[in-house]
Structures are given as structure tokens and as C-alpha cells.
């Protein structure tokens, strides 16, 4: 008996014991909305990070002939435009265009003339921007009729192009990479600092709490723009710095919220019991206080992520964040907002991805909250 | 309680002092100055300006001068808005920002708490889903998008409301900027309320009052709400401070003569005294609202005690 009393964990229980984390995982898997959110997030991440491999254009490639064109699934230029160009070419080569067809990336044409045509006339076709690799396929009627084939330079812009003639699809993908990275890392930084700081401040209380919270007030009031400028001056502009700065600003709200919860939690019976059992402050904060603040914390994380992503665009606007031709969803959205009447697709496409990401994130957040809630067994 | 408030007010003085000190030097370490314009000024003009504003003095002396003047309520002249002192600029703009911010705060708080409560009471229903989707859109769509979209719909297409300006200060002019300002905060309040309301409704004392047969409205509004408001109140302090001191984006879009613009413009123009003015302004709001919130904690949850 003494053995067991001293070491109750040595007795293996009949059922398989599950850790808090395992339990949470099982409950999370059962939550359909949360799993759907996970899948969507994964798809958006794949789109952003692997998508560029499948898009022929790069994010900084400029197409001067396709500036601010609306999105379309049809390749550009379209057939009627090509027909016009072809007519022009034929006129320049002094031949008659008998037939012209475009199929995907290739074209075939039949030209005729009263005199035998010099096969070098194909150069006239290659000279047009739209056509290349023109070859003579067949000669008929002693060279008076030539059948030509060649390649058409046609580009697909399913999302349209921006005011510099860059493919919006490639830019949304790149923006996704940067925004997802900034959003995730900065939110994790703010989550980590905010929860630990708030819980410690609230739990210890008294003079420590007073000093710690005055420190938060000081950070709140510092002029954010100058904080960033000075950091950039000292450490140079870097990607890591951006999310460190954002994380360093966004943890303040989190700390206040966690502290508020902790103030009420620390008077609860289970905390008193833990104190009576002789747990150290750190153990109580880690095992009892922090898990019980999970509800508001997760809700607030889902709020911080969009804030962080948009804050990044503000930094970019000040010339301190990512700079063109690099971009982010926030930067794309603010660019789109400026062209809302003339080119609404510049706002719509990045917004769709941004909103979809945050919707799924909210479902995942709610799922995590339910899964980790220590009161709900 | 009175001792607590007095102690906190006393600790506000060193807090403000530290804020002023760090901001002052932080600002000066940043490159650029108020008179470094794109087209450089003639050296003689530059020298005169620098001497007039005492920018040629050593930094510590400028700091000492600033602090000793600020204590007496003199926050110096603005470098960019000539003929205006910082106190005048803020004094003129603040009432506009505060009035707009107050309405926006009211809308965000009441709307957010109401929506969050309804969503929590109908957890996982279509209504819950709808409200939370709306809240997600609210947090996601930035106000530099909401502003132009609202103007486009209500001012330009429907022409129901003015597109901007303060006008005679009547509600018609305030509605659109108020919505643009309140929407993101409303969404945060709704999400926070829903989460903690769901938890509060499962608490033992709620089951008890339900078992007593109290009407569901009383249970929710007077009993569950009290416990559920804790995270909402926590967020209220930074939110109120931010809303009441104006927003650069919303004030620019709707051409409102508030102080929100000065936060960004002051920093961009390196208008040192104006930046210091805005820093002190926001610090006072943050300190006051944090104090109010700490008092509210005790009223909402008697277990919270400030020793």
C-alpha cells in the first residue's frame, strides 16, 4: 500500500491513458468544419508555394502589351486580333491570305500569289511579335501557294494583369508565400510572448503586475513608425525583422487579455488546490492557468493573423516592408483598393485568397478551442 | 479602491516620463529631419530654421527643454503646420476624433456583444455560422477597402449619404466613417463574446440559476454575461484608446479634421514636436482606459482583487 501511495503512477491503469495533446487531437479530428478548414489552408499553402512551378510567368515579368487586362480563361491575344495581325503581315509580304487557323499555341496559314513565292517570305511572319518558328509545310502550284505552320505566342492570364503588366496569378502566389509566412510567424511570436507575459503578470500580481503592465503601456504609446524605422536603420531591412517587429507590437493586446483572465482564474478552487499540493508558480501557470485561458487566446489569435498581414502592407507602404517587385496579399489588396473602379479584379483575387485563408483559420481556431478546452471533457 | 486608483494615477507619472524619454530619443535616431525636403532648402534658410527651433543644440539640452516645457503644458510649435502649436493642432482635432470614435466604440461594443451573444445562444446553427462569417469578413476586410466601398455604394451610386467631410457634424456625415471605423472592432468583440459566452453558459452557477427557473433572458443578461465580459473588457482598453484618438486611414478617406492623421503625417514629415504630442496623447488614453478596465474587472468578477 505504501508503495502505491508514494508512487501512484507506477500502477498501470486498465485503459490506455491519453495525454492532453492526444485527447485534443482525437477531438479535433472529429470536428468536420475544423478539418475542412485544415484542408483549405493546406490547399492555399500548396497553391502559394508550389503554384509558381506550374505558372509560366514569374511575378516580376512585365508584359508591356498586356497592361491592366481583365481576367479571362481565353489565351491572349484572341483569334480576331491574331487575324488582324496576320492580315497585316500578309499585306507586307505582298501575298494573299487564303486561310488562317489558330489551334492552341500553333497556327496554320495558306498564302498564294500570282508569282512563285520565295520561301524566305516566312521571315515576314516571324517578324510579328505574335508569331514565331514559321515553316513551309507544303508547296503547291509551282510555289504559287504555300502552306505555312508555326507557333503563336499566346499568354494565359486567368487573373488578369496589374497596371505594370505583370501576371496577377503569379503575384497572388508570391503574395501568399510572404503573407502566410509573416502571418504565421508574427502571430506565433505574439502568441508566445503575450500568453507567457500576461499569465505571469496576472498570476504573480501585486507590484510585479503593476510594473509589467506599465511596461506594456509604455510599449503601447511608443510611435510605431519610428520604432520600425530605427530598427531598420540598425539591423538593415530583412524579412525576419518585419515579423519580429510586428510580433513585438501585437503581443500587447494578447498580454492584456490573458492577464485579465488570469486575475479571475487565480482565485479559483483548482488553483488553490494546486498551491496546496505544493506546485511551484511556474507549474501552476503552465498546467493550470494557461490551458484555462485557451478560449479567448485562440479567438484572439484568429484576429491577430489578419491584423498582422495588413500591418505588413502598411510597413510596405512606408517603404519598410517587402518592396516591389516582391509583394504580399496586404500590398496587393491596398493596390487593388486604389483601382477599385477601373480594375476591380486587382482587389477581388487577392481578397478571395485572403478571406478564404482567414475563414479556414477561424474554423481551425474554433476547432482547436473546443479540442483543448480543459473544462469540456 | 480609492487607494488603488490613487496609486495607479501616481504610477502614471513615471510611465508618461519613460514614454516621453524613449520616444524622444527613438525619434531622433531615425534618419531624416523636419526640414530635409525633396528639394533641399538654401543653406541660409536651413540654418535659420534650425536655430529658430533650437535643433542645433545638443540633444540632451533639447530633451531637457522639451520636458521642462511640456510639464508646464507647452508642447512646442509644429514644424510642418506653421503658425500652429502642437497643443492647438491636437486641441482642434481631438473633439472630432473623439466624437466619431465614441460613436464607433458604442456601435462596435453594443453590436459586437449582441451579435456574439446571439451566436453563442444558437451555437453551431445557421445563425451562428452567418454571424461569425460576417465577423470574419469584418476582421479581414481592411478599412482602406471598407471606406472606398461604402463611399462608392452609399455616396456615389445611391447618393444617400455624403461622401466625406464633417459638415455640420450631424449624424448623416458620421454614419459611413463610423461604420468603417467600427467594423473591424465589432468583429473582434463579437468573436470574443461568442467564445467566452459559450464557456460561461456551461458554468455551474448558470446551471443553478436555470434550475431555479429564472427566465432565460435574465440568466443570459445578468448572470452569464457578467462572467463572459472579462475578455471583452480586456480588449476594450486598447480598442477605446485606438478609436478615440482617431484613425489615419478613415480620417483621410472621409476627410475628417481629426487627430488620427497626425500619427502618420507627423512621423512621415519628421514633425518632432507633433509626434511627441501624439505619443503623449495616446499614452494618456491607454493609461486611463487600462485603469478603468482594471476597476471594471473587480465589478464584473468579485474574485478579481487588486492587492
Automatic annotation (TrEMBL), chain A:
Pfam families: BPD_transp_1, OppC_N. CDD domains: TM_PBP2. Residues 176-365 form the ABC transmembrane type-1 domain. The chain crosses the membrane at residues 33-55, 178-199, 211-233, 239-258, 289-309, 345-365. GO terms for biological process: peptide transport; protein transport; transmembrane transport. It is found in: Cell inner membrane; Cell membrane. GO terms for cellular component: plasma membrane. This is Oligopeptide transport system permease protein OppC. It comes from Rhizobium subbaraonis.
TrEMBL record, chain B:
NCBIfam families: PRK09471.1. It is found in: Cell membrane. InterPro entries: BPD_transp_1_N, MetI-like, MetI-like_sf. Belongs to the binding-protein-dependent transport system permease family. The chain crosses the membrane at residues 12-30, 100-121, 141-161, 173-192, 232-254, 274-300. It comes from Rhizobium subbaraonis. GO terms for cellular component: plasma membrane. It is a multi-pass membrane protein. The lineage of its organism: Bacteria, Pseudomonadati, Pseudomonadota, Alphaproteobacteria, Hyphomicrobiales. GO terms for biological process: transmembrane transport. Keywords: Cell membrane, Membrane, Transmembrane, Transmembrane helix, Transport. Residues 94-297 form the ABC transmembrane type-1 domain. This is Oligopeptide transport system permease protein. PROSITE patterns: ABC_TM1 (PS50928).
